[in-house]
Specification:
The complex is a heterodimer of chains A (110) and B (114). By secondary structure, chain A is mostly beta strands. Chain A is built from no helices and eleven strands. Chain A starts with a strand and ends with a strand. Chain B has 114 residues and is mainly β. In chain B, strands 2, 4, 5, 6, 9, 10 and 11 form a seven-stranded mixed β-sheet that branches. Classes of the chains: A mainly beta (110), B mainly beta (114). Chains A and B meet through strand 5, strand 9 and strand 10 of A and strand 4 and strand 5 of B.
Chain lengths: 110, 114
């Protein structure tokens, strides 16, 4: 059974701070990793994907992957109130399916 | 506009009354998928389709059927809905699976079975 674990939160950070969201996965054969953002009542939207060990940066977002530790994280720099949402980690194990974590709720206070 | 559409957006029905939730995409995507989202359980895959006439079970297929007769459409069928199928349902599509394939989600269908 493939598992993707996330802290449910909420993670509360002040505006301008760095938010750090973490995710672990059980399937060592996992190949690709995705971070989705979901606002309340809306559908998930892709923020970033990563498939190589190390860091990948896109604007204020940085995804970090450590396959040896089966760990993937998302850093949000200069957090804004508009970043308040639930962040979903998803893992593609190469079997044509995505397994999602339950999500971490992020609250950014002005 | 590139999009995934679902209908209906909201549905209240009774136990045992067959229903179909439609999903359509206009991006010529090969891969389509259905998820359900429940509080505390997250997004779970019901069925997916790699292409026309190719479908397979996800993690929670019991009580659901799908078909893929055309590339753009992937309806979800509940032949005898039960209250435990009350959930928020999302359809998604992508060009394929793997590292660079973003899944585009529809707006969701909130289903209540009484």
């Amino acid at each position: 059974q493939k598992e993707v674990e996330q802290n449910s939160g909420p993670l509360s950070v002040p505006e301008g701070a760095i938010a750090s969201l973490n995710c672990t996965y059980s399937d060592r054969g996992s190949q690709s990793f995705f971070w989705y953002r979901q606002y309340s009542g809306k559908s998930p939207e892709l923020i970033m994907f990563i498939y190589s060990n190390g860091d990948k940066e896109d604007g204020r977002f940085t995804a970090q992957l450590n396959k040896a530790s089966q760990y993937v994280s998302l850093l949000i720099r200069d957090s804004q109130p508009s970043d308040s949402a639930t962040y979903l980690c998803a893992v593609d194990s190469g079997y044509s399916t995505l397994t999602f974590g339950k999500g971490t709720m992020l609250l950014v206070s002005p | 506009e590139a999009q995934v559409t679902q209908n209906p957006r909201y549905l209240i029905t009774v136990t045992g009354k067959k229903l179909t939730v439609t999903c359509s995409q206009n991006m010529n995507h090969e891969y389509m998928s259905w998820y359900r989202q429940d509080p505390g359980l997250g997004l779970r895959q019901i069925y997916y389709s790699m292409n026309v006439e190719v479908t397979d079970k996800g993690d929670v297929p019991e009580g659901y059927k799908v078909s893929r007769k055309e590339k753009r459409n992937f309806p979800l069928i509940l032949e005898s809905p039960s209250p435990n199928q009350t959930s928020l349902y999302f359809c998604a599509s992508s060009r394929g699976t793997g590292a660079t394939y973003e899944q585009y989600f529809g707006p969701g269908t909130r289903l209540t079975v009484t």
